[in-house]
């Protein structure tokens, strides 16, 4: 990473579903959120770390959310929406964007942990507001537009063993 200063106030926004499915599809493993947060903060002043997750009513879901809290994340959840015909939808894109915009004056750097190209407009807005924007995600499943828009991109594929844990 370039331009990292200890006195930067950092806020971390994690798109849990995006990361979960990338790790599962690419590596058939789970994400090490402890190492993820450590890399995102990078010795700077952490103001907020928020993990946005979808409740899917799985057996170990409560334990997972509690583990995120123990690491230092605020956990925001919403239920998976099921539509007639069986279609399902669950994402936090708008919630993440609104929170980041509301917090812009209280942070020097926003770290978006997602590979979703839908966040490019948010990146541009935050940068226009004077906020440095970094992204972290598995590069193989990250939109090129997002990589190009941010000030710095950490490709989790390059040190995948650091950011992955075995299922189980």
List the helices and strands and how they pair.
Elements: E1 9-15, H1 16-27, E2 30-31, H2 33-41, E3 45-55, H3 61-71, E4 74-79, E5 81-82, E6 88-89, H4 93-103, E7 109-113, H5 120-128, E8 132-137, H6 144-149, E9 152-155, H7 160-163, E10 164-165
Parallel strand pairs: 1-3, 1-7, 3-4, 7-8, 8-9
Antiparallel strand pairs: 2-10, 5-6
Number of helices: 7
The SSE string, one letter per element, is EHEHEHEEEHEHEHEHE
Specify the helix fraction band.
Answer: 25-40%
- Report Rg: 15 Å
Q: Which structural class matches the secondary elements?
A: alpha/beta
Specify the oligomeric state.
single chain
Low-confidence stretches: none
CATH superfamily of the domain at 9-48 and 92-165: 5'-nuclease
Strand content: 25-35%
Mean pLDDT: 92
Distance between the termini: 32 Å
CATH architecture of the domain at 9-48 and 92-165: 3-Layer(aba) Sandwich
Number of strands: 10
**Strands side by side in the biggest sheet:** 4-3-1-7-8-9
